[in-house]
Amino acid sequence: MAATKKKAVRKAKKGERIRQVAAIPFRLTAGGDFEVMLVTSRTTQRFIVPKGWPMKGKSGRKAATIEAMEEAGVLGKTLKQPAGTYSYWKRLANNFIRVDVIVYLLEVTEELANWQEARRRQRAWLAPADAAMLIDEPDLSTLVATLTIPKQAPIDAA
User: Fold this and answer.
1) What is the pLDDT of residues 23-35, one digit of tens each?
2) Of the four, 30, 69, 135, 141, which is 20 to 30 A from 100 by CA?
3) Residue 139 and residue 22: Cα distance in Å, rounded?
4) Overall pTM surpassing 0.85 (yes/no)
5) Is residue 37 included in any domain, yes or no?
6) 101-128 pLDDT, tens per residue?
7) Helix/strand/coil for 60
8) Is residue 140 part of a domain?
9) Does residue 101 sit within a domain?
10) So what's the pLDDT on residue 5?
11) Residue 156 falls inside a structural domain
């Protein structure tokens, strides 16, 4: 991923927009409501959603699914259509760059007890309104607060 990040930073320095992909893991409760999973960031421990750089040879949906497995330790089915987008300022060593993020919903079918970043991150299941209050990025917070799960969603394994 380091090469992809370096390429994105070069693009940002030229004034080009750069993008990432993200997954919002969700599950349905026994009462018919839904919850979303947030994870903490590695450095600041702020609550975020699993996200990362696009992966060569993989669709955005597949890359988001992989990020959810690596960062949140969840497996599931990712909806075909993006749930939305948001933008944020990514902190780098010497500056900030603007990043546009395409977000996919991931219906969780399995939570792993051990996963790649388990020692660096915490995860939490929350109602969307509660999750939105914990998220610092305004655009992501709004997306999560207004999130709806499509009825009879066409879900495909990514």
Assistant:
1) 999 999 888 889 9
2) 69
3) 13
4) yes
5) yes
6) 999 999 999 999 999 999 999 999 999 9
7) helix
8) yes
9) yes
10) 64
11) no
- Tell how far CA 153 is from the center of its chain: 19
Beta-carbon contacts of 157 under 8 Å, excluding residues fewer than 6 positions away, are 77, 78
Please tell me the number of Cα atoms within 13 Å of 72 on its side-chain side. Answer: 32
* Residue 21 · residue 52 · CB < 8 Å: yes
d(CA 13, CA 102): 21
> Rounded to 5 degrees, what angle do the CA atoms 25, 152, 157 make?
50
Helix (H/G/I), strand (E/B), else coil: 108: strand
For 126, counting Cβ atoms within 10 Å of its Cβ (0-12 exposed, 13-18 middle, 19+ buried), the class is middle
Q: Say which amino acid occupies 18.
A: I
pLDDT, one tens digit per residue, over 9-65 is: 677 667 677 899 999 999 998 888 899 999 999 888 999 999 999 999 999 999 999
d(CA 97, CA 11): 10
CATH number at residue 18: 3.90.79.10
Helix (H, G, I), strand (E, B) or coil at 45: coil
Helix (H) or strand (E) holding 62: helix 60-72
Total number of residues shown for the chain: 158
Cα separation, 158 vs 150, whole angstroms:
17
Residue with tokens 């599950």: 27
